[in-house]
Amino acid sequence: MAMGSGTKADPWQLTTAPGTSTYQMWRDEGADPPALVCQVGSTQLRYDRRAIDDLHAMLKARGDWMDLGAADEQKDAKPGTVEAWGRAADNPVGGWYGLRKGYRGRFGMYLPPLLEALGLAELTHDAKGNRMRAR
Fold it and tell me: Which of 27, 55, 70, 105 has the fewest CB atoms within 10 Å distance of its CB?
């Protein structure tokens, strides 16, 4: 489970699906749009906060496992992955959930462990090729 309450003062403490990196996330309700801040070392990524509910709803509708497929913004996402959905023109926000230009990717790396910690999804935790599905 994610320690913390998801505020900047008490962030969620998370680990990537393969278990190789730790990071923190918290809600920034004052941002426009409200954001999820993802702090990885000295790098800060920001995602639209509605990504939690939207990703969970998509996974529930899908009803099966989905590859994570994490990729940097500059790289193409593998089709049919969580990463590809997080930047697709036909998702609920009509494109990128990532809010910080140049750092909009890695949706498939940092959002799935948060959904798992919140009890909304389950993840595999292999060295590579991890997948998730709705709880």
Answer: 27
User: Which domain range does residue 79 map to?
Assistant: 12-119
Q: Is residue 133 one of the residues assigned to a domain? A: no
Cis peptide before 113 (omega within 30 of 0): no
For 28, the token pair is 């920034």
Q: What is the pLDDT of residues 114-126, one digit of tens each?
A: 999 999 999 999 9
pLDDT at 1 over 70: no
Evaluate whether residue 33 is within a structural domain. yes
Tell me the percentage of the chain whose pLDDT exceeds 90.
97
Question: Is 20 inside a domain boundary?
Answer: yes
pLDDT value of residue 2: 62
Q: How many distinct structural domains can be found in the chain?
A: 1
Q: The sheet that has 121-123: what strands, in order across it?
A: 66-67, 131-134, 121-123
